[in-house]
Structures
1.
Amino acid sequence: MSQKSPVAPEFFKEIAQLRTELDDANYRYYVLDDPVLTDIDYDQRLRRLQELESQHPDLVTPDSPTQRVGAALAEGFPEVQHAVPMLSLDNAFDDEEIMAFVKRVNERLERDSDDLIFCCEPKLDGLAVSLVYENGALISGATRGDGRTGEGITSNLRTLRSIPLKLRGDSIPQLLEVRGEVYMSHSGFEALNERARDEGSKVFANPRNAAAGSLRQLDPQITAKRPLEFCAYQVARIDEDEAPTSHSALMARLRKLGFRTNPELDRVQGSAALLEYCQHLGKKRAKLDYDIDGAVIKVDELRLQRELGFVARAPRWAIAYKFPAEEQTTWLKAVEFQVGRTGAITPVARLDPVTVAGALVSNATLHNQDEIARLEVRIGDRVVIRRAGDVIPQVMRVIEDERPENAQAIEFPSQCPVCDSTLERIEGEAVVRCPAGLFCAAQRKEALKHFASRRALDIDGLGTKIIDQLIEREWVKTPADLFHLKADDLSTLPRLAEKSAQNLIDALEKSKSTTLPRFIYALGIREVGEATAGNLARHFGSLEALMQAELADLEAVEDIGPIVAAHVHAFFEEPHNRETLAQLIEAGVKWEEAKVSARPQPLVGQTWVLTGSLESMTRDEGKARLQALGAKVSGSVSKKTAGVVAGPGAGSKLTRAQELNVEVLDEAAFLAQLAGWENGESGKDEQPSDEETA
Ligand code: IVH
């Protein structure tokens, strides 16, 4: 049938009409929530279109509804750099914390009345993805990943009928990057699991896991069979004349362009209405056909969002209100003590398995010794377990009335359960630690798992079981030893065939080419997560510079305070760590050196405050330029403040600066100073400040 015959005009017409009908049907179903076609009618039209297209393959366009399912990927998912980082949100757990958020926002915006407009919507419990459209066509879709780099899962996302392959309407933006959540509805999830049970295949624990598993399929045919949905909640980039100026207007624009946004989305004014929204949504939660774990509250106006800006990984203009978590009761059967990566000893409660918030729970953390004392919990007790979303289940309290007579007190060990070292508890800290560091097999294991993990060196195939064996056989003591493993030795490990052994060697080889942020993160320095590792890498540009940094240099890094600085400093002071680093580099671990900023940094150690508005730039830009010169920018004036930049509308901060005799610059003076500093003039000699970045 694929023989080429002349195309009759009716053909064109019918193909075009079918495509429009199918696109419209999706739009009516997903966006307007007002279906026009039954599933049977939809499938019938789709099949007719497939038939026509197979007769004229030259008429197939990438955005045709028949082109949702593409070929499988052989090589895994490609990396995708996010042009705008995908951030997370800070949380509020009760009304008070929501009020504190509103207060912070109003203060920062220097507003006196409680009349700010917020846009609120449910916080969907799925996975964040980002979609890029150029001239109306979907060209790329990616996961969040670490927020800067995600996985390219375009082919899988194309299979979702709620994701338009092309934008609707006459006027479409040249560039559009839309973000939203991919999730599975309760009904979709039930149907999927029922099918899985029938077929004897894997049953998913909850809709979120099912959605995650479905998106990470290399074969889009599999994803296409999973009932995934997409709901848009953010525009990261839009390139068009007269783009909307508020979040709510952007959401309306997205609906016009063909995206589903949440029907519960609402605009509210002032904190009372905000609290009411959250309460109302909480009541509605049980009736929704999808999991939500709270509400997301966003300052509506984009101009104000820009003014508020960001801290480390979250915007200041939004917050996630999390519903109180679900609770269940069960029996505490035993307590075991686990040794973490940094030696922290965590008591873990072994429980009679119980389903909490959709997942089977058989372990829960008891945190530390103080927590055990506070709970007055004993082995054998009936306990209340709470689980919120991804969070590790916790023991909340004991039901004392049900305490059996033979309930036993929990004894905290004095020796490390793994290496027998005497445990330490530093005064003022709640945590008991095994001080043996990498000499303790448990810490070695955890350090290696972290080193190999996906966001660190991403060593494919180096899972927990293999790491356990490598440590037990003492083949590997430090991460550097990994790179001296031989395929012949590995293949003697139980359950590791020759092929897998060679694959692991290849994966190790591949992991050697990494990036500086990943490498720093992989080292497992206490309190250094991905965001901090990224900040360190960008600030110092090279491992050598980071290793030589003094405490004060470290504290000058964006979002690093004295505690983290001390951990980083101590890590690089430790001779064992230096030795391991040298061995890693010797073994061939490498990365492209980040471009060291050639810029002078005359303001290191100084804290500046911006208040009021500026004409030639936003406060955020002003802040960024000061930070690029090494300054910290704070939200409050103290006697240690090096200078205050005050524009029109400056209020109490200006008065405070004048009281404390802190230098105040108007915009013109500030611009002149900036130009001087950026051209290499030195900053003024001020006492270094210990204030934190605001
Ligand atoms: S807005 C700048 N809106 O929550 C951050 N996020 O903690 C923009 N999420 O990774 C996020 N529903 O996966 C936003 N209505 C919603 C959301 C939502 C769920 C998730 C999202 C993100 C995480 C942030």
2.
Amino acid sequence: MTDFDFDLFVIGGGSGGVRAARFAAQRGARVALAESGRMGGTCVNVGCIPKKLYSYGAHYAEAFEEARGYGWQLPGAPRLDWDALKARRAQEISRLNGIYESLMTGAGVRRLQGHGRLLDAHTVDVTAPDGGRSRHRARHILLATGGTPVRPELPGHELIVTSDDMFDLPRFPRHLVVVGGGYIGCEMASIFHGLGAQVTLLYRGEQILRGFDDEVRDFTAAELRKAGIDLRVRTEVTRIEAAPDGTRRLTLNDGGVLQADVVLYAVGRRPNVAGLGLEAVGVRMTASGAIAVDEHFATAVPGLYALGDVRGGLELTPVALAEAMALVDHLFGPLPGQARRTMDYEHIPTAVFTHPPIGTVGLTEAQARARVGTIRVYRSDFRPLKHTLSGRDERCLVKLIVDDASDRVLGLHMVGADAGEIVQGFAVALKCGATKAQFDATLGIHPTSAEEFVTLRDVTRT
Ligand code: NDP
């Protein structure tokens, strides 16, 4: 086809879009990418990266406290300079924005600054920030526009902030109320508590972190409370008002009232599909408002693809990256000498950067019970060596779920320092189908918390 300007046109410069654009260009495809904001999407700008930087920042508060138990004499109470932290974060994110830009241009991708909208299955209209328009024809178009935080509809909804606003709050909140007991709510509660805010975390259901192993949920909730977070379950906000002193007044379903400087809603994210022109080309949507795709990320419109958060799957950066690589192999073939990649949604490890963090891979105990006959559950709940002197009473939970018939480890869960780092390694073992006997045959690294995973002996339930 000679009337196409590009082989692939990507709308959205987040994790999935940039990866697809770069890898397609490496295979010799003519590629363009349109992004109206800064490069890197949610992950780089208002998600994983700034969140983790602030989490590191918050951990210092614990370290200062623990240091005294190790004999350190600190001159006084350390004080957070919120403006300095924001400025340092902004500087680092700008550096990453630049790296993303140069990775793309270095790979030969044509970068267009502006909002992309479909005119038909092979034509994208791009509106630049100055209002200038351009039109581009492409053999394949990829929609990788990500997601955006859901906003509540209750009275006073205009007084809330979302995770997009948290990194640049003009003033550090003395009292923060967080609504939502998922990834973002729990992480933000821990981080801002660590940085020095008084935090109230409200969750509408029985226990936070629905979808995680029940024991992990209970253990984490107990640790958050022990750390000083006011976690309230079965609690909903019915209205929010602005008080004359600039604070927010929240009325709760139990009749209670809360005062806060900032009210963060972290009640899920929805796909970014507005203004893409999807209706005009007949794209099919899922019930939750995401773009429906097949196993090759093809939408109902030939030539049009979607991946990452906009297709409403697991909203995780490594998933979007892997989907992008599978799509590029599908459209343009693998690199010489490499196997064609396909997407495998089994054994996706994940971490929640609460304090202490959660790391998990594979099935929860409840999922395993529902899927296989008999299971064995091994667990250990202990005080990490570090805290024997630090004076803190934080504990660590490690848990293995094993299929009794095959001896395969079906699920591995941890709540404790560095859980994300530790579970990443064990995720390889689960992907390889490791058995409990192979865990037992592996020697521990002593003394670590991770060695508990290879020394678990007592079956707690069958
Ligand atoms: P989640 O889906 O994880 O959690 C949403 C929370 O809000 C749940 O507790 C949910 O309750 C609650 N909720 C939903 N609607 C309402 C409502 N109307 N009123 C009160 N509470 C409500 O979404 P998040 O926003 O926390 O995060 C979005 C996604 O981003 C995550 O699912 C995850 O995939 C990704 N993410 C990943 C991170 C990581 O890898 N570390 C970090 C941050 C985000 P209920 O359980 O009852 O439905």
